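Homework help board

Subject: predicted structure for assignment chain

Our instructor gave us this sequence and asked us to write out the predicted structure in token form, then describe one feature. I got the tokens but I'm not sure how to describe them. Can anyone check?
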Amino acid sequence: MKKFLISVAVALVAVVVVNILASFVYTRFDLTEDKRYTLSQPAIDVAQKFDSPVVIDVLLDGNIPPEFSKLKTETIQLLESFASKNKNIAYNLVDPLEDESLAQQTIAELQSLGLQPASVTVEENGKVSQELVFPWAMVNHGDRTVKVALLKNKIGSSAEERINNSVQQLEYAFADAFTKLSITEKKSIAVIKGNGELQDRYLADYLTSIREYYNIAAITLDSVASNPQDVLDQLKSFDMALIAKPTEPFSDQEKYVMDQYVVNGGKSIWLVDQVAMEMDSILAGGGSAFALPRELNLKDFFFKYGVRINPVLVNDLYFTQIVLATGEGNDSQFDPVPWYYNPMVFSKNDHPINTNIEAVRYQFTSPMDILENDYDKTVLLQSSPLSKTDGTPRQISLDILNNPPDQETYTPGNMPLAVLIEGDFVSMYKNRVKPLKLQNTIEEGTANKMIVISDGDVIKNQLRNGRPLELGYDKWTSSFYGNKEFLVNCTNYLLDNAGLINIRSKKVSIPLLDVKKIATEKTKWQIINIGVPVILTLLFGVFFGYYRKRKFAA
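My token output:
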């Protein structure tokens, strides 16, 4: 008995000593196979920038469906990881619908802030009900607040895939929010004008989305004709140039200015329509219009960097819908119909830019050829395996809806629609006669990046009553597409020197319970989990009583 008491005392002392040491030395061990609780170094770096409190309100407290309970747990685990790197980071769990009497008012207030709820169908004991959940977090620092969407939806994803997608993007989502709150010196983006590019109201949502990261200004190439050196000097002060759907040809002088900009290290995103065709033209033309090649005088520019945009249209069986009106007056109806010239482009999830994004909507796009040269080319988006090309000039008519497509003719498929070009940029005018004289020109530059997208409408937001809608939202079908996230990722990849965008490549896998299996085997597992421990306890008691009788009887 004395030895037993000594052993207990030693164990208690050891526990007390370990706890005292743990209060001075804190560490965490990530035993998950995918290391999802081990923060990436760029995320750690941005979290450690704060020297004053950062409070995160997670709106996932209360009685929430099991699917969101898993998301809540993963979110808390991640925030604890961030808190372990910076003691100024803390979080609160909030139930926004705790007061049922104010539920409708609270829902309206949250929606006015842009926090859209998720409607979840809950089935329990044979009863089906609808519940609203707000899968959001609010990151607060000083007088600034950044919203973080915790739920990541993708078209056609199952409940398990939705949770995996959501958990996979959590680290990047919070690190991105920390970046927005801590950024002090912004890089700058020039929106190129002068060649019939999209008006600002059609770029409004994209520009608003990146304004928290970057300074934005317009540069007009019209002045190249009178003062090309001044235009180039202005351009060089910007880190990236955005060329959104030009419709008028670039002069050789303008092209040379852009050439010198990219050779001198300026990043660029080109959204180019090689075919002139708009849905409005078809509707205004009584149901048909001619698609014509568009001459922008950029073929040799892109050819130098290893891509060629072909003046043909992609016809894809993975399509998005358009809405057509039928009938007249009170009998009119609006029906969604398939439109094969508006591809729904799914990502291969093989690059930080395209990982875990929703399908991107293209409209009257053209395929690109990838040419062999010294530059590294990465296809970010491509058409579906069931896609083909239609040559131009060509009459595009709504009558194609009356003729079922022949799937056998939809080849070759998988045609590049967005390409990232990386390498040491060389001037396309090297060893050529220059169209004008500029100061301090160079013919061979250093490492640079460029993204070419063969559809200007990828960046175009719709309007309602003259006001811009969210980029990627189609007001006619009420569908959301991943255009904004894709373009923001493109921008961040080109300009992010800290490598934060690379967090998007992190893969996690969350094993979830099979709902159907739970329903069919519920009774069996209740018996096992409740009955087996009781039986084992009784058996141990019988055995221990028998053992004591034998021992003391002797």
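Reply (TA_rk): Your tokens look well-formed. For the description, you could write something like this. The chain is about 30% helix and 25% strand. That's the kind of observation they're looking for.
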